[in-house]
Amino acid sequence: MFRVPFLIAVALVVAFGGGIWSTLKALDATTGFGAIKLGPWEAFPRAQTAEADPYAKSHRANAGKLLYASAEGLTFTASTDDRGQRLNSACRYTVSGQTPAARLWTLYASGDDGQPPAADSACRGR
Asked: 86 and 123 in contact (C-beta within 8 Å)?
């Protein structure tokens, strides 16, 4: 008697739960398409514009962050060093190359949550 309504309820929970879970994972996985990569550094120049793809727009709305307009700046991020190892706040790194052509630029380290990272462990020869 309750078998059919129970199976329908289970199917709905799986469908809606799986859909919501996969959407949240997709939003956390990428900022969008059209990335510029310079070594380990990555930027998404169209993520802040009207031509942004739907994933970039959804990511921006989900994050709740105010992003730079295309004429104001571009955010480059890196989570690994040039050897592919995860960045560690206990290590020292050298950033080299040309200074960006801009009036003002800044560089800071943060974790995935935007807060300063804690030292993982001693730097292992990096």
From this structure: no
Residue 80 is encoded by which pair of tokens? 């690994």
Q: List the 76-77 sheet strands across, edge first.
A: 36-38, 41-43, 76-77
User: pLDDT (tens digit, 0 to 9) for every residue of the chain, 126 residues total?
Assistant: 789 999 999 999 999 999 999 887 776 666 667 778 888 888 777 776 777 777 777 777 777 766 666 667 777 788 888 888 888 777 888 888 777 677 767 777 777 777 777 666 667 654
Domain of 69, in residue numbers? 31-126
Residue closest to 87 by CA, chosen among 114, 121, 38, 113: 121
Residue 2: inside a domain, yes or no? no
